[in-house]
């Protein structure tokens, strides 16, 4: 009988050395708990991926791998008492779980540890397979191919993640006016050499604690890479907005170029995607001025709305915003509480008064009403209409919300299908952005803008978290 291969879990390098030398008997329990703190964050984008903070983990998540509650408690208590992890004991039964994070001293490059407990290996394999059994409306054909073919160049992606972190640390050092060599920065990330001294010097400077968030983000990106490399894949539709959530949709854009394919890959996405879907909605609203809607629509359909609003913003305020800043401003106008971002909304109201009135009315009771509505329209159009049409001609693209990743030989066909189906649905075709995914880290698709990032400068921190939690509540419940 062929023996099963041991599974891997991933923990910070210095913790691996400490735990290997510890007297704790059930080491696999420790590895699994530390790994879960970051594995939970593979499933969705949220504010925890931006700033070093606690990750809520329900007890049921630990019990999937360590079925004895006493062993779970003993392992967590040991890790907390040793100072290896931190625990936020505040919880509300059925609503908010206890939070956990790796102690700041141990933030840094993650490395693999092998699980040797045969029963735990079986449980890990069972959980991995359970993710594949979930049915996906209208997308079973894509799911099947996704699980068979979705892979990543692990080594190159890990190097890119480290390079990204090094660049961010260099920027931080410039801001705090402190200097380290490249090798010293590398040691800070890998917890080698005189990294403790270097970290302490950075942390003594005002703003230096951003180092923790940089290392935290690196660890999340490493975990995402390892998950794909290990076949720890998920592929499901969000019950709130119908969007597809997968390892690809949560993968940072700079890592997409490391997706493995036999052919050059291209990204096809909608320019001004969310404004376009708002336009298709506004056309049928009798309360909104028709001339105003058509002016807005011409800009959204042509992909020029952000540039137009940037010009108007400068005329009205005397201040300059680039395209990315304008996009974020517009999303704040669309998705926030009606009492928030009033200066931005006043500018938009000056340009499109009846549309601003419509947005405020729509978001009066629940501030994410418009966001969910537009994302639902987008997911239906992409996943329930365009994807089946692609299937009919034997093409199965990867999708990232408003965009497709396709082989070079399939790109023109997918683009034609996209345009034909959108013409049927909405009577007009949005401008499309077409790009080799190897050419740049960033693209024009709106999926790469996270809601928590858009709202990061919210003047009311509670309101900011409320919007984030509302949008991602479904994901968090499912992954708990």
Key words describing this protein structure:
single chain; 480 residues; alpha+beta; 2 domains; 4-stranded antiparallel β-sheet; 3-stranded antiparallel β-sheet; 21 helices; 11 strands; disordered C terminus
Helices and strands, with pairings:
Blueprint (H helix, E strand, L loop, with lengths): L7 E5 H8 L6 H13 L15 E2 L2 H5 L5 H13 L3 E4 L10 E4 L7 E5 L3 H16 L6 H10 L4 H23 L5 H9 L4 H10 L5 H20 L5 E3 L6 E3 H4 L14 E6 L2 H10 L7 H13 L2 H13 L5 H13 L6 H10 L1 H10 L6 H24 L5 E3 L2 E5 L3 H16 L5 E5 L14 H4 L6 H19 L1
Antiparallel strand pairs: 1-5, 2-4, 3-4, 6-7, 8-10, 8-11, 9-10
Summarize the structure.
This protein has 21 helices and eleven strands. The protein is of the alpha+beta class and 480 residues long.
Return the domain count: 2
Care to count the β-strands?
11
Integer-rounded radius of gyration: 24 Å
Strand order of the largest sheet: 9-10-8-11
Largest sheet: 4 strands, antiparallel
Shape: globular
Count of DSSP-assigned helices: 21
What share of the residues does DSSP label as strand, in percent? Answer: 5-15%
Alpha carbon gap, first and last residue: 35 Å
Give the helix proportion (percent range): 40-55%
Quote the average pLDDT: 88
Structural class based on helices, strands and sheet pairing = alpha+beta
- Weakly predicted, low-confidence segments: 442-480
